[in-house]
Amino acid sequence: MTAPLEELYKRPGFLIRRANQIAVSLFLEESGALGITNSQYGILLVLKHHPGIDQISVAKLLGLDRSTTGMVLTKLERAGLIGRRVGTHDRRKRNLVLTRAGERMLGRLAEPARRAQMRVLSVFTAEERAAFLGLLDKFVGKFNGSTRVPLEALRAKCS
User: Fold this and answer.
1) What does DSSP say about strands 82-86 and 94-98: parallel, antiparallel, or unpaired?
2) What is the pTM of this model?
3) Residue-wise over 48-74: b if at least 16 C-beta within 10 A, else e?
4) Whole-angstrom Cα distance, residue 78 to residue 132?
5) If you ran DSSP here, which 8-state letter would residue 87 be given?
């Protein structure tokens, strides 16, 4: 291997992107039969805990851009996993809810998601896991506001 590539492979951005690719791959390996992506899983989880939330708020809670969120929501709606209802205070808004099928899917995803998380962290000792997650949290918290789509939950926490 050449020195410039070795330097590239040690850059934080490269390693973070590669780690994300691996984490996504492990999630899909565990949940593949269910046909749900990480983004879809995140949205289903948000809707479970925030029924009636609107699309823009979902995007902010997950740090997703609006167009990606809209596409993922449309796919979930077509699959019968979520429903959209006219807003009670603002009829232009659509409030999102899990359907019964969405609730069942979330239940079926619980174990594969847990296994994927355990696989991601399996290379670390218990002490290293805590340090790794703490450092990632610190990094994300510090630079959250400088992204194109800041995670709203962190914005409130860091303010």
Assistant:
1) antiparallel
2) 0.86
3) eeeeebbbebbbbbbbbeeeebeebbe
4) 38
5) -
pLDDT tens digit string along 125-151?
A: 999 999 999 999 999 999 998 988 888
3-state class of 39 per DSSP?
Answer: helix
Tokens of 155: 């914005």
Interhelix angle 100-121/126-143, rounded to 10 degrees, is 110
* One-letter identity of residue 96: L
What are the backbone angles phi and psi of residue 94, rounded to the nearest 5°? -115, 120
- What's the rounded Cα separation, in Å, for the pair 118 and 2? 34
In angstroms, the CA 120 to CA 145 distance is: 26
Beta bridge partners of 82: 98
Q: Which amino acid is located at 157 in the chain?
A: K
Beta-ladder partners of 84: 96
The residue count of the chain comes to: 159
Residue 40, Cβ density class (10 Å: 0-12 exposed, 13-18 middle, ≥19 buried)? buried
